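Here's my example:
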Amino acid sequence: MNKRRKYRYWSKEEKHRIIKRLFDEEIGLRELCRQEIITTTLIYKWKAAFLEHGIGGLENSIKPRNPLVKLQNKKHLTEVESLQYENMKLKIENARLKKHYTNEEVVKIRQRKSSKKSMK
């Protein structure tokens, strides 16, 4: 059975808590992995980063994604989320207007970018 894996987001605090458990508690690596539902490889990477750089080494290196996408894909938005979504859309529109872009120009720019990506 081939199940699709869900990627989990681990905050710096969660990583630190798990590494701290590895050092402080008398628990084996494999048992810790079973309890936390995590691979040994990931713990080895976190442990090496922690020993080399301290808690700062556990910081996530992934850039924040477009927050609009997160809200666009939701079926039901709370009142606060719908206001945040509307605010973000207005900020984008305001930035476009400041640059004097029309909707047609924005479509052309997107097409150029997508054609460049397809060429790579």
Q: What stands out?
A: The radius of gyration is 22 Å. DSSP finds six helices and no strands in the chain.
